[in-house]
Write a structure and sequence with these properties.
Distance between the termini of chain B: 54 Å
Strand content of chain B: 5-15%
CATH superfamily of the largest domain in chain B: P-loop containing nucleotide triphosphate hydrolases
Radius of gyration of chain B: 30 Å
Order of helices and strands of chain A: EEHEEEHE
Distance between the termini of chain A: 7 Å
CATH architecture of chain A: Roll
CATH architecture of the largest domain in chain B: 3-Layer(aba) Sandwich
Number of domains of chain A: 1
Largest sheet of chain B: 7 strands, mixed
Structural class of chain A: alpha+beta
Number of helices of chain B: 29
Number of helices of chain A: 2
CATH class of chain A: Mainly Beta
CATH topology of the largest domain in chain B: Rossmann fold
Oligomer: heterodimer
Number of strands of chain A: 6
Number of strands of chain B: 10
Amino acid sequence: MINKKKSSDDIRSIADLSCGECAVICKVTSKTLSPDSPCVRLMEIGFTPGQEVRMIAKSPFSDPLAVSIRGTVIALRKQEAECILV
Amino acid sequence: MHLGLTDSEDGLTKTSAPHIPTITILGQPNSGKTTLFNLLTGANYTTSNYAGTTVEFSSGRLHPKFEFNATIIDVPGITSLYPKSPDEQVSVDTLFAINTTTPTDLVILSVDCSQLSRQLYLAKQVLDSGFRTVIALTMPDLLLKKRLEVDESQLQSMLGCPVIKINGRTGEGIQNLVEQAVLLYGTSLFSKTIPVPPPEPTEETVTVLYQFAEQTEEKVIRNLPKTIDLQEINRSVFNSRISTPDPFSIKIDKFLLHPWWGIVFFGMIMSILFTSIFWLAQPLMDMIGGAFDILSATVTQNFTSPAWLVDLIAQGFIGGVGTVLTFVPQIMILFLLLGVLEDSGYLARGAMIIDKPLSKIGLNGRSFVPMLSGFACAIPAIMAARTIPNRRERLLTIFIIPLMSCSARLPVYALLLALLVPRDQPWIGGVALGIIYLTSLFLGTAAAGIINRFRRASGPTGLMLELPAYRRPILRFILRNTYYRSVSYLTKAGPTIVVCCLIIWALTYFPNVTPNVPAAQAVNLSAQELDQWVVAERTSTSFAADFGRMIEPVLRPLGWDWRVGVALMSAFAAREVFVSAMILSLRISDDGDNFQHAITNAMRNAKVSDSNQTLFTPASTIALIVFFMIAMQCISTLAIARKETGSWRIPILQQTVYSLVAYGAAMASVAVLNAFGVY
């Protein structure tokens, strides 16, 4: 909702945030619908739609990423971070 | 041993002994569970593996000062009552008494109040499942830094269970916590409910649960009295202050998680860690080794008969105990430093920095410290692997640790490289040693990569690692943990190591206990030389030598003879024993100054048994180095792998695979060298 630059084919995930950037989660979804999908676990950890996240740091290989959520910081691999759309 | 708890009868059945309630400490990772455990328990404290798993938990009795008899269990942290990994499965199974006979009577739930809504998720699940729960609000100091506090009585009435604020550093509130727990346990005796695990969560149920958590958080968190900023009347500003992580930690992370400075700092920390276990432990290990040598010599001097019994005690038993104890300094130093890194919050960040390359071979960032420690010694390294939460990654790390070139291999490499390298160009040896270390790192990575390719992860392999707020570690808890780790190593792996050392001793000692000294020899030799001659003769006619001769056909293609075989077998007690065993079998006498030269010369001149062929040719020496790089020549490693993985499966697999690969690689290197005209 906060995403101003959003165009029709440009869906951003939290992996696309730059350091220090804030965003509000709009959806948690996975490309594959396998039972191994991390979505529910990500939500259980606190990444629920409507929550504000902030990119705290990126590791040297830009993977994993450190994202703040609900008063703490969680390191996520890029693959997982891409499931969280903003 | 099963939990160390025998008193597992149901509290309602009338037994002569009163039922001792079991209190399980539950909470999310980093929520201060272990601090609670340390505050609640007294001196008796055991760590055990869940039957057949690598998951470990601590249990202990409630401290006598609380005047209530209960067993406290600390299970690994969980995010949700619906497990996603085998490790969480074990925590949850224990909680619901699935596969165990010890039902949880009471739950003490640690809730980090600086991230309340996230922590209330699990709290709500636990309460909804029907557990009698007391909530311990931890980390109030972090909330205080944000000029906020929790209204405990409000939270208590919203959740319907006692809520007590705990100061982990001072222990404030812990007495009250126990009192509430005792009260709650008293009421539970009258109405017993059996807790039910929650159904699999869906996006909807998670959302509903979090809605409750958010509403609760909003109602119970308030500004500190007298510090209300006018601008913060605005609710949204206030809310964002609640959901901001510890600002101090974020400031530090600007440096420690900086793309470049982060790596520099990581390198520094890891160098300190490694040099500590590699160099700092050395004098302590030498001291222990020296003390046991003196002890052994004293026994030999003061008791004479029967000779074999004296030798059994002096060499076999005292030597074995000495072997066990020499690892203690490294274990203690590693666990002390690991404790400081873990409790300060840095370990998680280090894991994040190094995660990417390790994830490529099926490991995660937390495998780094154990792998690095493996270059000092596999024993503490395998023990350190317990900081890896994911079972599969932990087993994989434990599996490849023996490939890391440990310090016990250094004397062996030094001896063998001295044979290869021209005496006037010692730098070649240094370069060769560098290559050996790099190759061992490469072999470890390759092994993990190959295993990962063949045995793909069954479940999801994510990271999802919390980077907790930086905190000053509580040293007394770290010391306590280090102490119990060492004790658990001594009591669980120690006996296995001693027994194995005794077996190896017996194999190289019997059956020719008192070899006959030919009269011609006896005249020419001094008393000391005679002793050495006897030992050498005894070994070369021992069971180990028989076995060495038996497998000689296998060793011959590599250019080795039975004496190398015996030395390899002796080296199972500890790799560096290879050097002394080789000296013994070549009957080199220690005449002081030029001992090093004497060894190299004797080894250069040694001939393969019953032939004129040189034993240590460049090809056979390189083959030996290659063999040592890969082979699992260490019973202590096997014993600790058995202890840490909870079964013999992994150690046996390691022994078989690495021995075969080592032999094959040694053979291949001989073939390649021969092809290039090196013999």
